[in-house]
Design goal:
This protein is α+β, with helices and mostly antiparallel strands. The protein has one domain: CheC-like (Chemotaxis protein chec, 3-Layer(aba) Sandwich). Helix content is 42%, strand content 27%. Strands 1, 2, 3, 4, 5, 6, 7 and 8 form an 8-stranded antiparallel β-sheet that branches. A hairpin with a 3-residue loop joins strand 3 and strand 4. Helix 1 crosses helix 4. The longest helix has 27 residues. It is globular, with a radius of gyration of 16 Å.
């Protein structure tokens, strides 16, 4: 598959992103007991070698959740969140759920893992629902650092491999959470995900 998509193909992929982001916003709304708005996600398919330039975060620290995917279209995925922004969101979330407490780093990390899993799970559910493929994510690992460093957690990715990127901004009443969901199927595994949309 070429990374140069037609507008019709991009619209098809955008449907996956819209549904997945909608699921994520709903899940976060239930957790926070408040409405979480969603800005329209941006969708792109590009080569792995172009990923670092695409996602930005230059000079900023990210919280990166890395998961493996098993099933009909095996691969890996990352959820990247601006670290400062994400930690603020965690503190807001914890205050609403359990009130004012002393928040340790371990609590922040476990909460970020849970939030990242919810976001990733929402996108995967959308992909499974629309394509019929079976996908099973592993437990996430969390790391902090430059975005480029997060890519070093990805194994056996070749420069010409296709990458599916969804950029979303979730807008809470107190804080915005921006980030990227990055799906990196193994070689030739992206096609089963997209063939249902007529993308060759």
């Amino acid at each position: 598959m070429s990374a140069k998509l037609t507008e019709l193909q991009k619209d098809a992929l955008k449907e996956v992103g819209n549904i997945g982001a909608g699921h994520a916003a709903t899940a976060l709304s239930q957790l926070l007991n408040t409405r979480v708005h969603l800005n329209e996600p941006k969708i792109d398919v590009l080569k792995y070698r172009d990923l670092a330039a695409k996602i930005g975060y230059e000079g900023r620290t990210v919280a990166a959740l890395h998961m493996y995917i098993r099933g009909d279209a095996p691969g890996q995925m990352l959820v990247l969140l601006d670290r400062e922004n994400a930690i603020e969101f965690v503190h807001v979330f914890l205050r609403r759920v359990i009130g004012e407490i002393r928040v340790f780093d371990s609590i922040v990390d476990s909460t970020l893992k849970e939030l990242g899993s919810i976001i990733a799970g929402a996108y995967l559910t959308a992909i499974i629902t629309l394509t019929g493929v079976e996908l099973d994510p592993s437990s996430p690992t969390l790391s902090y650092g430059a975005a480029q460093a997060a890519f070093r957690s990805l194994m056996s990715i070749v420069p010409d491999q296709d990458v599916f990127v969804i950029e979303s901004v979730f807008v809470d009443r107190d804080v915005n959470v921006s980030g990227q969901f990055i799906l990196i199927p193994e070689t030739d595994s992206l096609q089963p995900l997209l063939s249902v949309f007529g993308i060759e």
